[in-house]
Amino acid sequence: MTPEQVKLVQSSFKQVEPIADQAADLFYGRLFEIAPQVRPLFPNDMSEQKTKLMSMIGTAVNNLHQVEKIIPAVQELGRKHVGYGVTTEQYKPVGEALIWTLEKGLGDAFTPDVKEAWVTTYQTLEKVMTDAASEVVPAPAFKEKKGLLARMFG
Description:
Helices cover 68% and strands 0% of the residues.
């Protein structure tokens, strides 16, 4: 990311912050519309999740100028998502929903340069998260013992 892209993302996010609740509603509405298979990964009551989303985006955006400081937290988030059942393929609709939300929320302020800066930001953070997630060793699957005695005394 260039310093100019960082500035564009940070300044455009300042315009989103006052409408954070609506932005979160737009984001999740769009995400569940384009990727309904991810809905079961989330709680029924999305209030806390929406707050977490906007907080996480805010923290990442506000620290883009010193990205090395947020990399460990982004990596940890990627590792945690494995435990939630998130797959690498599910990051794509999340990015699409984010860009769509920003376009709706920013209107005319969502210029091609702003869009490119956000796409680059998301792709950068997505790569950090998916790389970290790929390092997670899945827990071994439970194998049922087959014999009657093994099941009884196993």
